[in-house]
Amino acid sequence: MKTEILRIERYKALYRILNQYSQAFQGEALASVQSLSTLNNRLSTLASDLTRPASLVYMNKKNIRSTFMRELQLSLKLSMAVSNKTGDTALGDAALNYRREILNSSDFRRYEMALHLSQLLTPHSSLIDELSNQTGFIAQFSANIQLFSETLTATGLSFNERKAGRNEMKELLAECNRLVTLELDGLVEIRKESHPELYNLYNTLRKRRKPKRKTGEKPGLSDISGIVTDAVSGKPVAGAQITLLQQASVTDTDADGFFALEELHEGNYTVGCFAPGYQVPESATVQLGTDDSVEINFALQPVEPILN
Predict the structure, then answer these.
(1) How many CA atoms lie within 13 A of 56 on its CB side?
(2) Whether 204 and 119 share a structural domain
(3) How many CB atoms lie within 10 A of CB 30?
(4) How many domains does the chain have?
(5) 144 and 264: one domain?
(6) What is the mean predicted confidence (pLDDT) over 122-150?
(7) Helical axes 2-20 vs 196-206, angle rounded to 10°
């Protein structure tokens, strides 16, 4: 987000200069200046939302998951006892399979396990209450299952909204760039003689030192972005290293597993990914044109622990 924030602040500074000399613009020219203000306002809102720590969402999910997992593991133990007392082989087989599977399953798979288990346990609710020494155990277990399901849905929506916000921010920044380059630069140039202070201030801010281009290399505003997740849990992987072979560069994912490779020229690029504790996925190859925005996501498989 650092690059995006810097670009937003630059566009805000340009608008402040233009607004300071608003008397120099009328009609459609003034409308172009106001368009930059509208874009800046929306970008500021998005930046505020996207810089809020995602850890707050994770913490709520983590606490609810902890309670849910305790209930699920207790239910598995009770299921084995009930199966032994009643001869309910379907319940016993399900509990045995789920005990083997639970530690390496995704949260959604655990939810499905719990839901199935509660259905199998319901006919034995009286016996369950006696064994657990808790009245209404099945009802409480079902309530925890529902809460866990709602939390998974809410967390997924939250991160989908953050992803949509990033995409919107990219589009708005590209729109700001087009507005400044295709309209405002020319409008200020025309007013060089009548408003020299405006011209000097504006162009001082616009003149940024750019990296030297190789001979024959074309300018471009393309970017590659994506999210790195754990293929088993679905969680974002923070601190994963994203490599861009053609530039010998390395970028780390943020707390949401997000990365962005920006200001790329036209051409073919090879993007790799590495994170400790995960298998190295196959590199992705992409061909960029001018003003392209390509998304590449990596789902990393955890490395199985070596047993001595």
Answers:
(1) 6
(2) yes
(3) 15
(4) 2
(5) no
(6) 92
(7) 180
Does 221 reside within a domain? Answer: yes
Please answer whether residues 46 and 11 qualify as being in contact, where contact means their C-beta atoms are separated by less than 8 angstroms: no
Radius of gyration of the chain (CA): 28
CA atoms within 13 A on the CB side of 255: 12
Q: Say whether pLDDT at 287 is over 80.
A: yes
The answer to whether the CB of 169 falls within 8 A of the CB of 50 is yes
Q: Which residues are bridge partners to 284 per DSSP?
A: 271
The whole-number average pLDDT for the span 110-136 is 93
When pLDDT is cut at 50, 70 and 90, the band that residue 214 belongs to is: very low
Structure tokens that stand for 137 in this block:
């155990």
**CA dist., res. 260 & res. 272, Å (int):** 13
Of 174, 209, 244, which marks where a domain is finished? 209
How many CB atoms within 10 Å of residue 3?
Answer: 12
Query: Is 63 part of any domain?
Result: yes
Burial of 209 (0-12, 13-18, 19+ CB in 10 A): exposed
Among 19, 26, 290, 27, which Cα is nearest to 178's?
A: 290
Q: Are residues 196 and 266 in the same domain?
A: no
Which residues, other chains included, contact 200 with Cβ-Cβ below 8 Å and sequence gap of 6+? none
Is there a single domain that holds both residue 199 and residue 268?
no
What range does the domain containing 150 cover?
1-209
Whether residue 308 is contained in a domain is answered as no
Does residue 299 lie within any of the structural domains? yes
248 and 113 together in one domain: no
**Calpha distance 284→295 (Å, rounded):** 11
Length of the chain (residues):
308
Spatial separation of the C-alpha atoms in residues 33 and 186, rounded to whole Å = 12
